[in-house]
Write a sequence for this structure.
């Protein structure tokens, strides 16, 4: 492992923590009251959405940090790469589903005000399918990189299994 | 590269959806101007514009509903708006004069408006069904 990888991993984990844990933590205090009320009326549990993003952020930051401190050829490194890709898919589903992971991009909510009811439906499933394809390709890429790293890490003359 | 293309598609798609939907909403108070006769004809015209960079299709339907589920009149139209373009949507409700007299002013009368916008080759959509109570 090169000497640059550990500081890089620490920096990446810190940035992830700030963006996906720090920013969501302060977000409720800066959302205007009328928007917060509108979200509450529509049944969107903004606290739940923020909690999901923060959990995913902390999980991703921890994995990023650990990955920087272990050998690229280890099985744990491959598992972490796969877990990071799956976490990015879950993040996308949570974001597009406004916190409802089961909606898989087909989100609906209802707002009632002054004798008027609005039922809003957003169909963003195409982006979920797209993300699934991207994550699948990145998992394959991670496997190939891990496989190359294993070959490179072997003593000279050894034939990889 | 592929991720950037996906992000660009998301931003452009959402921009088009929100732009077309918000321009389709009537601005200010728009009173009903029924043409009396038998049937009574109530015209509606929306003027959606596509300020986005993708072609969009908008489907609008409007219904006059009494007592929760009795549809007195309904009409719908679908138009495709090219990027940067505009297309008016004309609808009209035709109601027998007797029913019109019976239900206008009825507090159980409601107006159901459904606006659905699709874009990005019909892959993504945004729809809003608004039910407004009151017969006046």
């Amino acid at each position: 492992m090169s000497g640059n990888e550990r500081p890089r991993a620490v920096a990446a984990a810190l940035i992830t923590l700030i963006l996906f844990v720090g920013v969501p933590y302060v977000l409720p205090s800066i959302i205007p009251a009328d928007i917060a009320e509108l979200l509450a009326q529509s049944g969107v549990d903004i606290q739940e959405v923020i909690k999901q993003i923060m959990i995913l952020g902390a999980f991703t930051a921890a994995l990023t940090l650990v990955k920087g401190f272990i050998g690229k050829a280890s099985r744990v490194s491959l598992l972490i790469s796969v877990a990071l890709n799956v976490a990015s898919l879950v993040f996308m589903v949570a974001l597009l589903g406004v916190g409802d992971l089961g909606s898989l991009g087909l989100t609906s909510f209802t707002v009632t005000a002054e004798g008027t009811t609005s039922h809003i439906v957003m169909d963003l499933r195409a982006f979920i399918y797209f993300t699934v394809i991207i994550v699948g390709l990145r998992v394959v890429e991670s496997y190939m990189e891990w496989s190359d790293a294993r070959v490179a890490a072997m003593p000279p003359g050894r034939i990889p299994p | 590269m592929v991720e950037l293309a996906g992000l660009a598609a998301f931003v452009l798609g959402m921009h088009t959806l929100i732009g077309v939907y918000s321009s389709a909403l009537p601005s200010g108070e728009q009173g009903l101007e029924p043409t009396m006769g038998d049937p009574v004809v109530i015209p509606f015209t929306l003027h959606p514009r596509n300020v986005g960079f993708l072609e969009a299709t908008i489907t609008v339907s409007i219904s006059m509903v009494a007592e929760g589920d009795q549809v007195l009149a309904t009409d719908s139209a679908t138009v495709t708006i090219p990027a940067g373009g505009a297309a008016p949507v004309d609808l009209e409700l035709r109601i027998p004069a007797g029913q019109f007299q019976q239900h206008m002013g009825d507090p159980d009368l409601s107006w159901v408006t459904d606006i659905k916008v699709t874009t990005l080759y019909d892959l993504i959509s945004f729809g809003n069904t608004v039910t407004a109570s009151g017969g006046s």
The helical segments of chain A are 5-30, 33-41, 46-68, 75-96, 125-153.
